[in-house]
Amino acid sequence: MVVVTGQKQASGNLDNAMSSSDTEDDFQDPATPTATQAGHSLPLLPQQFPEVVPLNVGGMYFTTRLSTLQRYEDTMLAAMFSGRHYIPTDAQGRYFIDRDGTYFGDILNFLRSGDLPPRDRVRLVYKEAQYYSIGPLLDNLEEVQPLKGEKVRQAFLGLMPYYKDHLERIIEIAKLRAMQRKARFAKLKICVFKEEMPITPYECPLFNSLRFERSESETKLFEHHCEVDVSFGPWEAVADVYDLLHCIVTDLSDRGITVDHQCIGVCDKHLINHYYCKRPIYEFKITWW
């Protein structure tokens, strides 16, 4: 007895199906993910946000309107909550932003009503505004203290060649000397001079101003390097030596470095004839602990 099954027919249908599938492969739409797949991948459709948005910013909770987050279209917040990007939620359904939320309230207050933070928080809020790319807030903060004054200070420091490099050199020399001596502190000699040409008491009766011209050959006679660890100058600005010293101490202090300084005299190096270098020399004491 011969038993006929549908196996051959099924096999034929399968071959036809595979052939048809191969032919139409390039024209098929992507398959809809299963429930299991959806649980392990980002949504395919744009994310929908409620009109009132609960937020969890680094563990701090906020609530605001969607329109507030979208107030300025060129910001990161507007992009995040545009629906084009997936924003994860915490266990309570709050939309999670992995960022310290300490100053996020100041960001929201500006987006809501244009309010600026108190002066003591301006620098830190400015940093957050940079992260979220909120241009209008950055522009407003740059016009108030202390950032407005910092812009003026940086304009002055822009005249100073290798200013940041010299700061790094001060730190490295002080660290090396303290480690070699196994000491709490290290001392450096630093020259800070404003004028290109050194002066002497003999020149004072001859010139009403410290700014005077010398020929190129005369200039070379006065070129020299003071015997110090680091030398700042010259520059052309109203700001004087004490202003630059304030900048150096401030920038080192902002990096957690304790600095004391005092003038210990002048270079006094003999140049030519009766000319001596009178650039001031300062002793910097860097304390490490």
Automatic annotation (TrEMBL):
Residues 51-149 form the BTB domain. Residues 1-21 have a biased composition (Polar residues). It comes from Pelodiscus sinensis (Chinese softshell turtle). This is BTB/POZ domain-containing protein KCTD7. Keywords: Cell membrane, Cytoplasm, Membrane. GO terms for biological process: intracellular glutamate homeostasis; intracellular potassium ion homeostasis; membrane hyperpolarization; protein homooligomerization. The lineage of its organism: Eukaryota, Metazoa, Chordata, Craniata, Vertebrata. Residues 1-43 are annotated as: Disordered. The keyword Ligase does not apply. GO terms for cellular component: cytosol; plasma membrane. Pfam families: BTB_2 (PF02214), KCTD_C (PF25611). It is found in: Cell membrane; Cytoplasm, Cytosol.
